[in-house]
Structures are given as structure tokens and as C-alpha cells.
């Protein structure tokens, strides 16, 4: 059957219109289904203040305890280098959650995770806080979007500690690092953000931010490194 010119043109226009509508609907669905990673990061990130400043990530709600049945016990994951100075001699420090509340940390409730640059600490509160959903860091590939948050230290541009949410990409991996660092990403994280979460595009926790390499000639950050969450999961059995 021969198609007339105007019939063929009409078919082409209809196909293009349907395709454009599909792209538009897909874009809407993507925005609806895609989690708000910025909001997730903010609720998970805690500010650590004391002898040394840093950030932390809420990873687990242990529920209420027998001694204080109205208080929930929360675990926070941070870098060992952030809290180790508090331990010898013991020094008091606090955690600030996203609602601005201050929580005292018990130094006897701090433990290093194996030989990694990671530490687990505990605080108690009657308030309920969301905790991280753990992702699978083994599935990350170069180019994947990563989101890093934390509390940056004061600087010439920032007069007080300021919450930062930064976006970048995984640029590479390190296989053998004695402190556990394996993720390399293009995020210009600032001092004070060590211990903050590294999230994937779905808002899952895939790493803990912790180390930056700086060009000694220019003073600029070359790359930022994190410890992947699977490394933590494989090692946390060594926590005393």
C-alpha cells in the first residue's frame, strides 16, 4: 500500500510527539522516584566539637536500654583521627545533631574499628533520629555521582563552622591502604568534614569521608579519599 506524503508526515509527527511525551513523563517520574539526597545527608550528619573538630554519620539506632528505658542509644561512625585525641587523656566533647541539640559522648563508649581510620561512638537521647541505609560500595564504578556532607571548620571565608553538602564523582580506587582508604573522588571537602557521610545517588551510605591530598606548591586540594562502607562491614567484628 502506498502512503501519501501527508499521511507519512502525520505519522512522523505523531511518533515524535509521543517520544517527546515519553521523555517528559520519564523526567517527572525520575524526579518523583529519585530521593532527596541533600535532605538525607543533612539528617545523618553530626557535628563533633571538643579537643578536635570533625563530623560524624548516624549509622544505627540500638533502641532503648535497660538502665534508661526512655533513651535511645545511637551509634555514630567517624574517623579515628577525629576522636583519638580525646582519649589520652580523656576529654569531654559533644555531638550536635541536625535539630541543633547537643549530646554528650561517653569516652568509654568509643572504639576503633580494627586498624582502620574509623571509630564508633555512642550517645543517648529521648529524641528519634533517622540512621543511614547502607549501600554496596563494591558496585561503585568510576564516574558515579557521590555526595559528601560535613561541618567545615572556620576559615577566612567562613567565620564559624558551617554545614556543607558537596557533589562530585568517583574518580578512582586504592587497593592497599593501611588505614582503609579506597575511594577517590572529585569533591573539594574542607577541614572539619572528616567523618561525614559519602552517599550514592539513592542516598545510601557507601563511604566515610576522611582524607585529602594537597598540592604543596599551590595549597589546593588534589583529591579527597574515603573509606568504603563494605570495608567497615568486613572489619567491625574487630570492635572491642
How would you describe this structure to a colleague?
The chain has 240 residues and is of the alpha+beta class. It has two domains: 39-125, Thrombin, subunit H, CATH 2.40.10.10; 137-231, Thrombin, subunit H. Helices cover 20% and strands 35% of the residues. It has a seven-stranded antiparallel beta sheet. Strands 8-9-10-13-12-11 form a six-stranded antiparallel barrel. Strand 9 (162-173) and strand 10 form a beta hairpin. The chain is globular and about 85 Å long. It starts with a helix and ends in a 5-residue tail after the last helix.
Top keywords for this entry?
240 residues; Thrombin, subunit H; 2 domains; seven-stranded antiparallel β-sheet
Describe the secondary structure blueprint for this structure.
Elements: H1 5-33, H2 37-44, E1 45-49, E2 54-64, E3 72-78, H3 80-83, E4 94-96, E5 102-104, E6 111-112, E7 119-125, E8 145-152, E9 162-173, E10 181-185, E11 197-199, E12 205-214, E13 221-228, H4 229-235
Antiparallel strand pairs: 1-2, 1-4, 2-3, 3-7, 4-5, 6-7, 8-9, 8-11, 9-10, 10-13, 11-12, 12-13
Amino acid at each position: 500500500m502506498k502512503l501519501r506524503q501527508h499521511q507519512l508526515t502525520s505519522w512522523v509527527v505523531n511518533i515524535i510527539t509521543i517520544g517527546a511525551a515519553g521523555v517528559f513523563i520519564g523526567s517527572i517520574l525520575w524526579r518523583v522516584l529519585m530521593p532527596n539526597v541533600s535532605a538525607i545527608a543533612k539528617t545523618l550528619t553530626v557535628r563533633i566539637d571538643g579537643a578536635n573538630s570533625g563530623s560524624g554519620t548516624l549509622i544505627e539506632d540500638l533502641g532503648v536500654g535497660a538502665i534508661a528505658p526512655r533513651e535511645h542509644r545511637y551509634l555514630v561512625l567517624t574517623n579515628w583521627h577525629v576522636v583519638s585525641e580525646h582519649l589520652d587523656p580523656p576529654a569531654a566533647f559533644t555531638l550536635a545533631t541536625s535539630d541543633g541539640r547537643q549530646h554528650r559522648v561517653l569516652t568509654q563508649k568509643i572504639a576503633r574499628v580494627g586498624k582502620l581510620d574509623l571509630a564508633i561512638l555512642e550517645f543517648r537521647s529521648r529524641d528519634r533520629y533517622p540512621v543511614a541505609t547502607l549501600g554496596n560500595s563494591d558496585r561503585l564504578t568510576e564516574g558515579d555521582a557521590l555526595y559528601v556532607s560535613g561541618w567545615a571548620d572556620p576559615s577566612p571565608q567562613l567565620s564559624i563552622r558551617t554545614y556543607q553538602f558537596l557533589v562530585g564523582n568517583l574518580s578512582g580506587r586504592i587497593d592497599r591502604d593501611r588505614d582503609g582508604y579506597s575511594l577517590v573522588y572529585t569533591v573539594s571537602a574542607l577541614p572539619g568534614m572528616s567523618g561525614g557521610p559519602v552517599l550514592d545517588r539513592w542516598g545510601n551510605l557507601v563511604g566515610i569521608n576522611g582524607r585529602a591530598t594537597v598540592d604543596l606548591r599551590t595549597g589546593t586540594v588534589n583529591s579527597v579519599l574515603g573509606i568504603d562502607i563494605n570495608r567497615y562491614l568486613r572489619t567491625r567484628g574487630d570492635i572491642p
